[in-house]
## 1
Amino acid sequence: MDDPLGLDGKVALVTGAGAGIGAACTLRLAAAGCAVAALDVDAGAAERTAAEVTGNGGRALALGVDVRDTDGFSAAVERCRRELGELDVCVNNAGGMAGHPLKRFLEVTPGFVTDAIELNLSALFRCCQTEARAMVERGAGGSIVNVSSLGGVRAVRGVTAYGAAKAGVINLTQTMAIELGPHGIRTNAIAPGTTLTPAAQDQVGHRVEATAAANPMRRVALPDDMAGVVLFLASDLAAYVNGQVIAVDGGFSAAVGVQPRSRSSS
Ligand SMILES: NC(=O)c1ccc[n+]([C@@H]2O[C@H](COP(=O)([O-])OP(=O)(O)OC[C@H]3O[C@@H](n4cnc5c(N)ncnc54)[C@H](O)[C@@H]3O)[C@@H](O)[C@H]2O)c1
């Protein structure tokens, strides 16, 4: 079998493609043969990822768009359909804590909650609608992968509104799976653990070693650890996987509490 992933010649759109997990997903999908739309609010970053794809011999379109801009996002999807072709794969990755420090529940302000939910849940909800409408209209199925967070699966002190938004992404993913499944559209999510990206450097850069030591794999994740699972979910290998959330966390969430190291484990 030449193309076990079934992605050669397909069209993929990735949001937040200019850095970190989104850039890694874009490069992986392109390496699997997809034409990729690299969408990012930072147009220059989107251009850089697209240039890396074309430099490797792939097809790419850079789109400088904020996912919170519903009309702008719809126009970008239309441009992608015109210039690259109909959407087969969408990775809704743009999000994060937008530089906000961790804040305990009692200290969180209404504006902070609104911002976190707008970026991480409401905007993603609207992007998913736009993508799914295009896929339903075409009638050839597709795969949508949403990037949630381990903070949406388990409570993390200080993560508050961001965690609540990411938990909402999981429920949305499940609802989309059951409503879009009959159209041949699969919807799944990944829940990354701490991953060394530009954003994570700001949040956990000062405690990478401690984070690594607390993980069963004794390291923190790299963006490509996420991209591999996104590629699987996008591919034909996951043809019957729908409505699932895969924690990509080195086994961190498998444990109850902090596990003491045994003498035999290094
Ligand atoms: N890095 C981690 O430890 C970690 C852990 C769990 C979940 N996540 C999630 O993974 C996703 C990617 O995170 P990352 O660490 O790679 O982030 P990052 O900040 O390193 O990269 C995110 C990219 O998205 C773009 N972006 C941000 N807001 C946008 C917007 N409104 N519209 C379009 N593009 C936008 C940024 O310009 C940037 O290029 C986020 O949804 C984040 O919540 C990350």
## 2
Amino acid sequence: MLLSDTEVISRVLSHIDNQTTDLGDRDWQEPVENYSSMARFNAELKLMRHLPVPFCPTAALPENGSYVARVAAGVPIVVVRTMDGTIRAFRNACRHRGMQVVQGSGCAKVLKCGYHGWAYRLDGRLEHIPHDYGFPDFDKDTHGLVPVTAEVKNGLVFVTQEEPLTRAPLLDTPVMMPADYQIFDSRENTSDINWKLNIEATMEGYHIKPTHPETFYPYGYDNLNVVETNGINSRITFPFRRIEKLREVPEAERKIDRMVTYVYNIFPFASVAVLSNHTSITISEPISPTMTRFVNYKMGPARDDDAEALQRAKKDASFVADTGLLEDNAVIRAIQAGLASGANTHFTYGRFEKAIVHLHKNLAEQLQSLNQFG
Ligand code: FES
Ligand SMILES: [Fe+2]
């Protein structure tokens, strides 16, 4: 269970008074080879197929017929909103000769393969084969698109490709943003790093002053965080200095909006950062042990007539992307490149890095049970 907003505020104010921060109860040694090993990469990708993993926000499928296609855990997947509004997911491969039936995102009444024109309904059924007298013995009914599990939880579509080891990443996902938030920006970028380095950079505030002295630190604190584990997931609170204004406000009337950044880790591949005026969702798609594609959605207030709120959201997003995130990226790329130094056999995560310890501990456990699973 996560703390309420007012409990978070009180805990932050107490940390400010006492010059303290949340602490974990153990440290963790993570083998450095886990950031470059092919065997580990393959195991993590397999794990990704055996967990409910965020695929996109439900807002990416606004209408009946909306679809989003991309590679997830190395497998081409398409997620669609069917004609009755339910969300379904399929392996994105034609049952004729395997062409991907759709690319990117869009809206369509049927999913039509671009090679020979076989057409599938949004529920996956194979509806039409051009010149079907060429396939006299072919059973259309057993050649629909191959389904995988799609489930919606608190604004996210989760896809589970293979029998899940645990449903905890989905079950432990809390409400993170207003239900009517819409996407105002989506992009993908590829970086020469292991996916874990990027996720880890969002999960501790111990680096705020050294890494972000002129960007985040002037508005925030160094090493002052609330760090909560929430089942298999976690949440880190990064307070802004303006939170001190709330000392004057009676506890029951305190509002957390614009006073903190909440960063949720959805075990283990996704993070959702709830910033002052927008929410940023990042999903990792590991491409190799040392290369990752990051799929990012930025969401904000829905109302079209509220141009000012949208402007604030965009300004917020560009402040983060053009300043602090560049600093984080420089650090994590340097870590990846530095692996070749051979200096470390292990990285050590201390008590301040409680959420990362939680991530690595759960990741090790899940990979262990994946092994037993066969
Ligand atoms: S591969 Fe799709 S119609 Fe032939
Ligand atoms: Fe950072």
